[in-house]
Amino acid sequence: MIKVLFVCLGNICRSPMAEAIFRHKVEQVGLEKEIFVDSAATSSWHIDAPPHKGTLAILKDYRISSKGLKGRQLQKEDFEAFDYIVAMDESNIKDIYRILDQPQHPKIFRLLDLTEDAKDVPDPYYTGNFQETYDLVSAGCEALMKKIKEERR
Ligand code: 4NP
Questions:
Q1: In whole angstroms, what separates CA 55 from the centre of its chain?
Q2: Architecture field, domain 2-151
């Protein structure tokens, strides 16, 4: 089983969106028995909370299920448990190193570093632009699927 964990600050906007979009892609290619997908926050602010209404609305627009999405905080044990720990921005990366007590590791990287447009995924909690988040996360998830297929073949 390949295990993928998306991480952002609150685990209510970007990383649950990434979890849902990536799971949808996994199901589209029939790999749901081989790839497990989850998401977590670097903060403790929204533990057990559902995603932000902007994330739920855009997933609904694209007919992507938001079933099972619930806030949780990243734990030290996640380092061993997951094969890909995918951050939304550079500040998440620093927080991940601190929480996992890990200076750096190839399994920890920023989502859009897999794309030509290597940058942070802007936080829609502040920008209000969930469409921009969807477009960037979707492109990142496509690149992540390609990376996993290449590495696991
Ligand atoms: P996220 O966005 O990291 O994409 O889930 C945020 C969600 C909540 C807060 C900040 C960012 N907050 O300040 O509660």
A1: 13
A2: 3-Layer(aba) Sandwich (3.40)
CA distances from 49 to 26, 33, 127 (A): 24, 27, 21
| For the chain, domain boundaries | 2-151
Q: Is 45 in the pocket of ligand 1 (CB under 6 A)?
A: yes
pLDDT by residue (tens digit) across 86-115?
Answer: 999 999 999 999 999 999 999 999 999 999
Closest residue to atom 7 of ligand 1, CA basis:
10
Q: What pLDDT does residue 153 have?
A: 75
Q: CA-based Rg of the chain, rounded to a whole angstrom?
A: 14
Q: What is the Å distance from ligand 1's center to 12 Cα?
A: 6
